[in-house]
Amino acid sequence: MCRKRTPGGRDELGSWLHELVSQPRHEYPAFAAALSLLVVLPPEEAAQALRDRVMVLVQQREATAHSVAETTASGVHPLFLVEDDYRVALLDAEIAFVRRLVGRIADHDWADLWREHYEGGS
What we know:
This protein is an all-alpha fold. The protein is built from 5 helices and no strands. Helix 3 runs antiparallel to helix 4. The chain starts with 6 loop residues before the first helix and ends with a helix.
């Protein structure tokens, strides 16, 4: 079955895509929700869970970057892999954020307050 592309259809697609590209949305709410509840865990457990997350993120980043490198080496123009470049950038940002957060958890100001909150059950 051959579907004809119509000017109206192209306009609608262009409009929809323009909106998706131009309007930021909060697209990964599960981790943000988990962060809002992080104090439910003791600080040491939370820090370890975050370090575990970093390990997984680093693996995902390496795999994605490797795939991009292999694909471009095979002759595919990077224009057609821009979504993977975006994924690598997101992974880089999340890795940096989580590493900073682990460091902040280890800071005495955070750890002491957190431990008091956790142990006090408040």
